[in-house]
Amino acid sequence: MRTILRSAFFLFLALIAVHFSGCSKKSKKEDITQSLEDRLTDALDFEGGTVKEGDPPKASDSDAAPQISSVESPEQYRLGADFAVELTSDYAEEQKVDKAIIHILGAKKYIVVSPAYLVDGLMVLAGTLRNDPLLLEKAFDVEYALQTSAGLTGRYRPVGFEISRETPQDVESPIIAVSVSNDNTFHESGRPEGSESEDVPQIQEIEAPSQLRRGDAFSVKLYSDFARTEEVVAAILTTPLNDAYYEIRGVLSAAASGWAMTITGHLATEGLEAGDLLVFLYALKTTDGRVGAYRSWAVEVVDEIPDGDEDVDPDPDADPDLPSGPLKMLPARTLPAAIGKEGKQIHVLTVTPFSDGLKQP
Fold first, then answer.
1. SS in 3 state form for the chain?
2. pLDDT tens string 211-267
3. In the sheet that 211-213 helps form, which strands lie side by side, from edge to edge?
4. Predicted model pTM
């Protein structure tokens, strides 16, 4: 009888152990599922971004709060790749906006990007999606809001996206490979911080192709209405979260409103594949070293460009203000990032200025 009772007791303990073991496994599985949003929050490495624990700031519907009009964002993100997001707003007091709030729906944390500049109704947020294999082939919803220096937060604008299956990249390796002429200067570190101040030249618009074939020539125009053109000395070219940068002497010419700086170059013939998307950041620099806010240019690498969108080699002796062929410049609005062969992230650009200095309008 004692043997039977002892056997029954041990059987009871075994059943309890199996039950709690199953619950533990289920709990761990649920924790992983529930933490995907938090994992993505940690993986989204925005320039100037800081992860905060808890719920995001409460939104205000007040007209006094900065409201987002639209969000231009990639529909697919790639592990280890750069990205850029454009937020537009008609908020009248732009100088009061200094932060952006990013929250993945379902996450128990959020991101604050500061400083974040709203310039001429546009804010550009750029960064890199760090490697986390658990995020592959998952869909998420993210919401964005603008915030003033006084802490007043506008309504959140949600957008959805997916993490596409791509070979994880070594994000610690150099993310930019640019060959420039001797007239330009490459800096391995010390990328200058941008400013939204009206006392420095700001880029209002970037006119550039949204698609290029490998080896294609291209032209980029940076439009500005900064009055003191004699103070504009160069353009800064870099990529998200990269401390290295190029200082490029472009050509200044008159535009319909203000002026434009023109930069020409060629896309690399090797190391890129059709479907790659490259994200670049431009800013304007003055003679005394002040730099305006960075604006993004995203370009997709393709095998063929639809009729009417073909690029042609620019004539270096031609007036940059005059048409030089069927080159059609399209505004870049597709903003994922770059992946090259063997899973390497590549940003390749060859830049050739028209002259040693600036041609004033």
1. CHHHHHHHHHHHHHHHHHHHHHHHHHHHHHHHHHCHHHHHHHHEEECCEEEEECCCCCCCCCCCCCCCCEEECCCEEECCCEEEEEEECCCCCHHHEEEEEEEECCCCEEEEECCCCCECCEEEEEEEECCCHHHCCCEEEEEEEEEECCCCECCCEEEEEEEECCCCCCCCCCCCEEEECCCCEEECCCCCCCECCCCCCCCCEEECCCEEECCCEEEEEEEECCCCHHHEEEEEEECCCCCCEEEECCEEEECCCCEEEEEEEECCCCCCCCCCEEEEEEEEEECCCCEECCEEEEEEEECCCCCCCCCCCCCCCCCCCCCCCCCCCCCCCCCCCCCCHHHCCCCEEEEECCCCCCCCC
2. 988 888 888 899 999 999 999 999 999 888 888 888 998 888 999 889 999 988 887
3. 185-187, 245-248, 232-238, 277-286, 295-302, 211-213
4. 0.66
| Residue indicated by tokens 């599985």 | 29
